[in-house]
Amino acid sequence: xxxxxxxxxxxxxxxxxxxxxxRRALADGPQLIHHDTGDVVVLPLxxxxxxxxxxxxxxxxxxxxSPLADADSERRRPLEPGALTARTPR
Length: 90
Description:
Elements: E1 8-10, H1 11-16, H2 18-28, E2 31-35, E3 38-42, H3 45-52, H4 59-64
Parallel strand pairs: 1-2
Antiparallel strand pairs: 2-3
């Protein structure tokens, strides 16, 4: 895939040549379209899903598959209110 923005389109050109923008996105990779209010990127759905993490697994499944899933976790108790106040010197 080519670098993001390897082909930069003005909004008006992309509007007139949308079919070509889409074909180039599928063949060459993401296409950058510049608009006065901000830039946007047209990219193939498979690339978007990979970047967005749309793997179809839930967060719980993802965490269970983590290399740290079996690691012992040390749970710490929250401090009691006032536990961090200065103690009276002896």
